[in-house]
Amino acid sequence: MTATSQLSSDDLLAGSRRLTDGRREAILAVPTIHCGGCVARIEKGISHISGITSVRVNLTSKRMTVQWSGESPAAILDTLRSMRHEPSLVGQEEESKDKVLSSLVKALAVSGFGASNIMILSVAVWSGVEDATRVLFHWLSALIALPVIAYSGRVFFVSAYRALRRFETNMDVPISLGIILACVLSIYDALHNGKYAYFDAAVSLIFFLLIGRTLDHMMRVKASTAVGNLARLVGHSATVEENGAYHAKPLPEVRAGMTLLIAAGQRVPVDAVVLEGISDMDGSLVSGESIPFSVCPGAELRAGLLNLSAPLKIRAVSGASNSFLAEMMALMEGAGAKKSRYQRLADRASRIYTPVAHLAAFLTFAGWIYFSGDFHAAATAAITALIITCPCALGLAVPMVQVIAAKNLFSRGIVVKNGEALERLRDADTVIFDKTGTLTLSEPVLNSAGNHSPENLALARQMAVYSRHPYCRALIAGAGQIDETGGAAIKDIPGQGLEMSRAGSIYRLGKLDWATDDGSNARGNTCVLSKDGLLLETFVFTDKLRDDAVQTVSRLDQSGLGVEIISGDTPEAVENLSRHLGVASCTGAMTPRKKLDRLNELSAVGHKIMMVGDGLNDLPALAGAHVSFAPSGANDVSQKAADFVLLDGNLGGILYARRVSILSHRFVLQNFSLAAFYNVIALPFAMAGLVTPLLAALAMSASSIIVVANALRLSRLLSRPEGMAT
Amino acid sequence: MTMFSLLWPISIALGLIGLAAFFWSLKNGQYGDAAGDAQRIIYDEDAPLDKDKGSL
To answer: Which of A67, A156, A237, A407 could crosslink A248 through cysteines, CB 3.0-4.6 Å?
Structure first.
């Protein structure tokens, strides 16, 4: 992704937000920050730039918020890069404050306050306070409990009400029923000088449930904005020629047949045909191939291509709504919708729990009425049964484990988007890798440096400095330090290569058929140096593998997962790589749609696919896979579409994440059994009317604490290196 | 009993003050960057209070 990975100051400006006083604010993710020292250095360095009004680095989220007035200071990015930090832009909508989380935390604090203060009074009642004092204590408890329940219980009441209105039931229905009935019964008992009130149970129930609910919210799926970001890539308008004049037109108004002007650095907004001009195009969006290709009049262009070198006049052959890019967005949306059918473990558990809780309470009530005929005793027993079966421990079982897992993953440079992805990861049995930018780094390397004559290499290097083509940069890096031999006139011929005239000869560095007279077909991944049409040297380039690609692939293979490579690159290049990595199955020349088709084909025969990809052309596949990874350095759109982001770009993170996922699953199951075990023991006592409020309070807290303590073990287990260290 | 009618309201009031303090700290962004704030004490020079901190 040579053209999209590095943030430019224009991107910074476009991704920033205008504050009310006219200043601008941008939020940057800087994953390489890891201590207070980095924070202090960055804040100091950035705040010295003129125009910067505020800079604040957040070490926990590894993000920095910077505000400036006036123009976008490019120095922000330069300063960061001089400290070896590569920032990426964070979408404003993503950073917007999570209102739900903050209201959950507030409700949690209120219920904690209520529970502890009521408990003080309840302990006195359990210890044998009597008569008028007991009545007073009951009323004081009610005074605290009722407002607390009204405030903190809303979370459950609202959700239960919504379900009931649709004639459905969910976990919150028995919870709300239990809380409300417990309150009503307690008020009745307080009025009639009853022995016990259940205000403490109702409030501490809310407290424990809210802990689980808050953690669960943190691991929820957040709405993906990847599709919107994709649309933003091509901008909102295009330069259209009408009656000999150029003017900007909103993208939706562009129709087939219009003539458009595409400046260097702009993306082609619709599918089109080149009318005039020769240029190089970056096709990473379409094919995933990072090496630019040249176009000349008559060439077909797809929406999303980036024009690199020279202005082009093109004729649109599609509108914005039916272009290649629009098709890709539709594919992504379709693929994403399919994935949302996955049912989370916690939801599956609650599906079993809800009818059981209702049934237990109902049977208790009916049984007591039938055998004793005492309405008050029956109601008490039924409410106790409802409260005791309340899924405090169940609600904590999954999110507690996932929050700890996510924290461990983040400390290893892996961001997991939601708990659901963590659950899905362990099911994956087939891994599909993209090639360019995922298994390999985007920059090619000179493969044949040792075989060239030093003079030719020096010549080529001298010419190469005049171009930003990836091959030229690889040549410069591969040739090493060579003495320069005088200046010369060098021309950059768009789409062909570089031309230099010296001492009456013409040297050309570029495509074989252009540089030499024989014009035979060029092999892929090469570039030649010629003198007056005679071949001097052929340079061969290969993609550089990521450091741990070989190791990761073989480990995945050993773990019994199928590995496959699908790439938009030439079949030849893909085969070479698969042979090197020992991967049997590979396919080249895949379009985004074909990638998704291949995925669907595999999942149709029961495979669960893990997709690892970085390119925009992988987007539909990333969205459609059972679980997906994107190495960072990938553009922010694919980072949004993927479930996991590997911040340090190490593929080994996949192995670690898989281990975390498998272990978490084991811990979740343990927690479920602990919670179920508690219910199986406690429920018969509650139904028999043997559970006093004291016992209920103890049992409820103990089961929740055990589940939390068990989840905490995961952290210890993960910090221990275990064969699969990454 | 007179003791109780005096002490209980005091204890509740103290609890409420604590709760209010927590709400304030939440709104003020005191939990926005727990790891960073712990280290800032070592590196920070004294500077005017910055109002634009992130909050939960």
So the answer is: A237
A199: exposed, middle or buried (Cβ count in 10 Å: 0-12, 13-18, 19+): buried
- Between CA A467 and CA A274, with CA A469 as vertex, the angle to 5 degrees is 105
Q: Tell me how many helices (H) and strands (E) chain A has.
A: 25, 27
Amino acid (one-letter) located at A523? R
The string of DSSP codes covering A167-185 is T---THHHHHHHHHHHHHH
**The A279-282 sheet, strands edge to edge:** A293-295, A279-282, A306-307
Sheet holding A489-493, edge to edge: A440-446, A534-545, A526-531, A505-510, A497-502, A489-493
List the structure tokens of A350. Answer: 């609650």
Sequence-separated (6 or more) residues with CB below 8 Å from residue A533:
A506, A508, A515, A516, A517
Give mean pLDDT, residues A544-567: 87
Tens of pLDDT, residues B1-54: 678 888 989 999 999 999 999 999 988 888 878 888 888 888 766 666 655 554
Residue A106 to residue B26, Cβ atoms within 8 A:
yes
Query: What is the pLDDT confidence band of residue A236, given thresholds at 50, 70 and 90?
Result: low
pLDDT for A634: 52
Neighbours of A347 (CB within 10 A): 13
Give chain A's contact residues with B (Cβ, < 8 Å).
Answer: 35-37, 39-40, 54, 56-61, 65, 67, 95, 97-98, 101-102, 105-106, 109-110, 113, 116-117, 120, 133, 140, 144
From A141's Cα to the closest Cα of chain B, the distance in A is: 11
* pLDDT one-digit tens code per residue, A330-364: 777 777 766 666 677 877 887 787 788 888 889 99
Predicted structure pTM score: 0.77
Torsion of Cα atoms, B7 then B11 then B14 then B15, to 10°: -170
Estimate the share of chain B in helix, then strand, then coil, as percent rounded to the nearest 5.
Answer: 65, 0, 35
Active site annotation includes A434 = yes
Selected residue of A23, A99, A106 to mutate for chain B interface (largest B Cβ count, 10 A): A106
**A293 contacts A280 by C-beta, under 8 angstroms:** yes
Confidence of residue A161 (pLDDT cuts 50, 70, 90): very high
* Amino acid B56: pLDDT: 47
Among residues of chain A, what percentage have pLDDT more than 90?
Answer: 11
Question: Residue written as tokens 């590569």?
Answer: A86
User: Using a CB cutoff of 8 Å and minimum separation of 24, what contacts does A569-578 make?
Assistant: A569/A287, A569/A288, A569/A289, A569/A435, A569/A436, A570/A524, A572/A524, A573/A435, A573/A524, A573/A525, A573/A543, A574/A435, A576/A542, A577/A435, A577/A439, A577/A440, A577/A543, A577/A545
Q: Contact A259/A241 with Cβ under 8 angstroms?
A: yes
Q: What ipTM was predicted for this assembly?
A: 0.79
In this model, does residue A150 exceed pLDDT 90? yes
- β-partners of residue A541 are A446
Residue in chain B nearest A102 by alpha carbon: B56
Parallel, antiparallel, or unpaired for β A627-631 and A609-612? Answer: parallel
Rounded to the nearest 5°, which phi and psi values hold at A314?
-130, 155
Q: Which of A16-25, A133-142, A284-293 has the highest mean pLDDT?
A: A133-142
* Cβ contact A616:A630 at 8 Å: no
- Separation CA A444–CA A464 (nearest Å): 14
The span from the CA of A696 to the CA of A186, in Å, is: 15
Q: In this structure, what is the dihedral angle of CA atoms A272, A278, A283, A289, given to the nearest 10 degrees?
A: 140
Closest to A200 measured CA to CA, from A191, A190, A213: A190
The more confident residue out of A41 and A287 is A41
What is residue A656's predicted lDDT score, i.e. its pLDDT?
92
Is the pLDDT score of A724 beyond 60? no
- Name every chain A residue with its beta carbon within 8 A of the beta carbon of B1: 133
